[in-house]
Write a structure and sequence with these properties.
The chain is mainly beta. The protein is elongated.
Length: about 750
């Protein structure tokens, strides 16, 4: 800090000194008046200071009683032991500094400032005050004064504040140091003491506890003083050693005064004992309200923050939010009006500066928008959980949306990721599920109750329940598993290998018909597909392990000769069709990998392609639409695996849950996204899993005593016909139906 005399003029009563002072980050220009100088006169110098004696104690002035130290609020200590705040309000002029060269009122011709600057008597003296020396030879910039052990602040009969919490040791005259005039000394609990000297009036008494920022006295001109001012000094209490509250910021190790304790000002420079302004004030609109949040002040003024005052603009409405919390909701605002908000922090001393304005907000009502507006679940087994369906909830209103409840009725369940309050433009997800308790169409709803104008909102939810019928016996004596397809609406076409290894065929069109023998020598179960109404294509493995085909175009009345399609198969074939003339045939090769051949016109066949895998059963295939094929087979771990072609590429095999199966699987589909898979387990019963366009379900037991792999076909949406061979080698059928 530099004390620079800007001008000096003689007056009838002495000298008027205009001083520019830099204290911390604050530069103040002030004129000391009316006294010639707010400091110590040359004829009223103090002698070397000694520890104070407790002198006469002044009575606390009426209405100025000091509060006791707040319980539970210890002295605030900052970095490096800092603890002081400004002991006054308002602008100020520094008239004398702490002399680091000799702060004991002895004169050595030098004045050393805390930043390392040195003024010398040999450079020239201030003519108006001979203990003020120039900082350069013949210069006019003076430092004051040689031997001074504190800071003199020109304060013209103004209130003074305690610089920190503490206990008053002395309030009156220091008998050992009477030149300080009327004095207050406060002992602080961290081992330091502060002196406030040359006072005009006292507002506290010895033994009284005081808080930071408490008014303790009025500045004056008592003792060795040539004008009203405050002498502020800081001491190490135990040895009564004067120290500079600014510490030393000059060259390291060059401080002439070895007793300095570092910078003792909270934040590193003198601050008023009030909190700084809060920052980062953010507002979110509500219904005739706004929710505010902010960051606390970077400096609390050296005292706990008790509350925050929030002010709205326009209108100037205010509210008080208790500290130390940093959020609040202001109500009573007008919907449709744009507001900003400021926040100011309050301590026991007072209220600090207001923050910058928040972002503008316009209070209003939220509006719930649900997409989709309704949900339709696919067919689900009675007692089984469906795959879930997501519903997006968006607040498209002008204020936050507060959710009060989300409920479901009927056989519907609902869960939610939604917070209690949804901000404008934000979305969250409701997740609906379906658990049918009976067959046929089932219905329910999801009801959202909130504070929007369109509350409550209802989402209609439907689904279909399906259940298994009883087993039906169809006479036969089969040596293979059956295969089934449908060549016309309401018709089932079943094939199997007979005891003579020939192909046998029966069909259902309301009743089951007698079995028809189709000559041939089969070494595997057959496979069948219908690529057009009345069209049946049957594939088998012959004695030479090659693939053979016979066809009927009249619904099974007449059959073509067997056509050899080559191959060297290790399993029965399977076939799927996604349209007229399209046939895709699969089989396990001699290396147990999956092989595939196909025709797009029913006549020209492609070479077998190897699709990989390690199969331990014949595969099964189906198609739910153009370009889609799904294949299942049993793997080496006896679990069922699934691969599929989506019109562009084959996908890697995926394992369909746990299970230990003793048969090849069967697969069917009643529409896009639906797959039903069946297999026989160790207990000779059939088990069922299905894909409902989103997830595979757990395997469920369908039952039966089965002696061959199952077969499955879907005649219509929501229906699956399951076929298998029983212990008596007869054909058995069981139907999953939603009607």
């Amino acid at each position: 800090m530099r004390i620079r005399i800007a001008s000096v003029a003689a007056t009838a009563i002495g000298l008027t000194v205009v001083i520019l002072a830099t204290l911390g980050n604050l530069t103040v220009q002030a004129t000391a008046a009316p006294a010639p100088r707010s400091g110590h006169g040359t004829t009223m110098m103090k002698t070397r200071e000694v520890p104070p004696a407790v002198g006469p104690v002044a009575t606390t002035s009426p209405g100025r009683g000091g509060a006791a130290l707040a319980a539970g609020n210890p002295l605030e200590i900052g970095p490096g032991g800092s603890f002081l705040t400004r002991p006054y309000w308002g602008s100020h002029t520094v008239t004398s500094i702490f002399d680091h060269c000799h702060p004991d009122y002895s004169v050595d011709g030098r004045i050393c400032e805390y930043d390392g600057a040195v003024a010398l008597s040999s450079n020239g003296r201030d003519p108006s005050f001979t203990l003020g020396y120039a900082t350069s030879p013949g210069g006019g910039n003076y430092l004051y004064y040689d031997g001074h052990n504190g800071w003199d602040i020109a304060k013209y009969y103004e209130n003074l504040l305690a610089a920190a919490d503490g206990t008053v040791r002395l309030a009156g005259t220091d008998a050992n140091n009477p030149c300080f005039g009327t004095t207050i000394i406060i002992d602080h609990p961290n081992g330091f003491s502060t002196r406030y000297a040359h006072l005009n009036a006292l507002y506290v008494s010895a033994g009284q506890d005081v808080n930071r920022g408490q008014v303790i006295a009025q500045s004056g001109n008592t003792g060795c003083s040539s004008g009203p001012h405050l002498h502020f000094g800081v001491y190490v209490t135990s040895g009564w050693t004067a120290i500079d509250p600014y510490g030393w910021s000059g060259a390291a190790g060059a401080d002439p005064w070895p007793s300095d304790q570092g910078n003792l000002w909270l934040t590193g420079s003198p601050q008023y004992p009030l909190p700084f302004a809060p920052s980062a004030v953010s507002a979110a609109p509500g219904n005739a309200a706004a929710t505010l949040s902010w960051s606390p002040p970077s400096f609390d003024g050296g005292a706990p923050i008790l509350s925050y005052t929030i002010t709205a603009s326009p209108g100037g409405a205010t509210m008080v939010s208790q500290g130390p919390g940093t959020s609040a909701t202001m109500t009573g605002l007008s919907n449709g009006t744009i507001y900003t908000f400021t926040v100011a922090a309050t301590t026991g001393v007072g209220t600090g500066a207001a923050s910058s304005a928040s972002n503008p907000v316009k209070p209003g009502l939220g509006l719930a928008q649900l997409t989709p507006a309704g949900v339709a679940f696919p067919v689900e087994d009675v007692g089984s959980h469906s795959a879930t369906s997501d519903i997006q909830l968006t607040n498209s209103g002008q204020g936050p949306l507060t959710i009060k409840s989300i409920t479901a009725s009927g056989e519907i369940s609902v869960s939610s990721t939604c917070p209690t309050v949804i901000a404008i433009g934000s979305s969250c997800t409701l997740t609906a599920g379906f658990l049918p308790q009976g067959i046929g169409t089932r219905s329910g709803s999801i009801v959202l109750t909130d504070d929007a104008a369109n509350s409550p909102q209802t989402i209609a939810v439907t689904g279909t329940g399906a259940a298994w019928g009883d087993w039906q016996r169809i006479a036969a004596s089969m040596t293979s598993a059956p295969v089934v397809t449908s060549s016309a609406a309401g018709r089932l076409d079943a094939f199997a290998r007979g005891q003579d290894n020939a192909l046998y065929y029966t069909y259902f069109d309301g009743i089951w018909h007698y079995w028809t023998r189709i000559p041939g020598t089969l070494t595997s179960a057959p496979a069948v597909a219908s690529s057009a109404p009345g069209r049946l294509d049957v594939f088998v493995r012959g004695k030479d392990m090659a693939l053979y085909r016979t066809s009927s175009t009249d619904g099974g009345t007449t059959w073509s000769y067997w056509q050899r399609l080559a191959g060297n198969m290790n399993s029965a074939p399977t076939v799927a069709s996604w349209g007229a003339g399209r046939l895709d045939v699969f089989a396990s090769g001699q290396d147990n990998a999956l092989y595939h051949t196909w025709t797009a016109d029913g006549a020209s066949w492609n070479y077998w392609e190897r699709l990989g895998g390690s199969l331990t059963s014949a595969p099964a295939a189906t198609s739910w639409g153009n370009g889609r094929i799904d294949v299942v087979a049993r793997g080496g771990d006896m679990a069922v695996y699934h691969s599929w072609f989506d019109g562009g590429a084959w996908h890697y095999w995926e394992r369909l849950g746990n299970g230990h199966f003793t048969s090849a699987p069967a697969i069917s589909s009643w529409g896009t996204g639906r797959l039903d898979v069946f297999a026989v387990s160790d207990d000779s019963a059939v088990y069922h899993t299905w894909f409902d366009s989103a997830n595979w379900q757990y395997w469920q037991r369908v039952g039966g005593v089965v002696t061959a792999p199952p077969a499955a076909v879907s005649l219509s949406f929501g229906t699956v016909d399951l076929f298998t061979r029983g212990a008596d080698l007869a054909l058995y059928r069981r139907t999953l139906s939603s009607s």
